[in-house]
Amino acid sequence: EIVMTQSPATLSVSPGESVTLSCRASQTIYSNLAWYQQKPGQAPRLLISGASIRATGIPARFSGFGSGTEFTLTISSLQSEDFAVYYCQQYNDWPRGFGPGTKVDIK
Amino acid sequence: EVQLMQSGAEMKKPGESLRISCKGSGYTFTTHWIGWVRQMPGKGLECIGIIFPGDSDIRYSPSFQGQVTISADDSTDTVYLQWNSLKASDTAIYYCARHRMQYNDDSSFDTWGQGTLVTVSS
């Protein structure tokens, strides 16, 4: 089973700053990685699939990078609506696995 | 607009049975895998399993195999998640979510239901 890890667990950031979140797979998943955003009381929302392809309607300030086992999600110039928990998920192998999440909160 | 509409919150006792539902609309229901995802209180996301409504092919995550049953009814564009005997540890929000790619069982989830809160308590 592929294990997904994310770092850091929490990131405190000021609006307007840029952040980079990391996600690592325990074995190669090629580019079969998605990023989701979840706000309190809401369902997750797909941001990125294929490691770097933004989903429909996702602003260009969200960018994904990586392949194999190491991946990053960068949010440029954080807006107030970007404070949330971010999860990565591999869909290369069964069972599908999510990372434990990175919470981005306001400094 | 592609939508997944889930059934409402449930409060049950340990040992009781339950079936929750997820109805798709705005797309051809039989062409996309749909998954169920659990989120326990204050915790992260866990994939329970996926089903292809076109032929009811199902994959369960090992942690959930034998604990729940996933099914689909393509005459009503609905998928279900069922428990025969609930435990307190089944208390969670359950989301259904659609695979982004048609027919492909290797895909991200692009559309999510609003979630169904299941509370199991004596």
Structure write-up:
The complex is a heterodimer of chains A (107) and B (122). By secondary structure, chain A is mainly beta. Chain A is built from no helices and eleven strands. Chain A has strands spanning 4-7, 10-13, 19-25, 33-38, 45-49, 53-54, 62-67, 70-75, 84-90, 97-98, 102-106. In chain A, strands 2, 4, 5, 6, 9, 10 and 11 form a seven-stranded mixed beta sheet that branches. In chain A, strands 1-3-8-7 form a four-stranded antiparallel beta sheet, with no helix packed on it. The N and C termini of chain A lie far apart (36 Å). By secondary structure, chain B is mainly beta. In chain B, 0% of the residues lie in helices and 50% in strands. In chain B, the strands form two sheets. In chain B, strands 2, 4, 5, 6, 9, 10 and 11 form a seven-stranded mixed beta sheet that branches. A four-stranded antiparallel beta sheet of chain B has the order 1-3-8-7, with no helix packed on it. The mean pLDDT of chain B is 96. The A-B interface holds A 1, 32, 34, 36, 38, 43-46, 49-50, 55-56, 87, 89, 91-92, 94-101 and B 35, 37, 44-47, 50, 59, 61-63, 95, 97, 100, 106-110, 112-115.
Q: Using the alpha-carbon principal axes, give the shape of chain B.
A: globular
Using CB atoms under 8 Å apart, which protein chain pair has the greatest interface? A-B, 25 and 23 residues
What's the total count of β strands of chain B? 11
**Overall mean pLDDT of chain B:** 96
SSE arrangement of chain A, N to C: EEEEEEEEEEE
Largest sheet of chain B: 7 strands, mixed
Question: Could you give the distance between the termini of chain A?
Answer: 36 Å
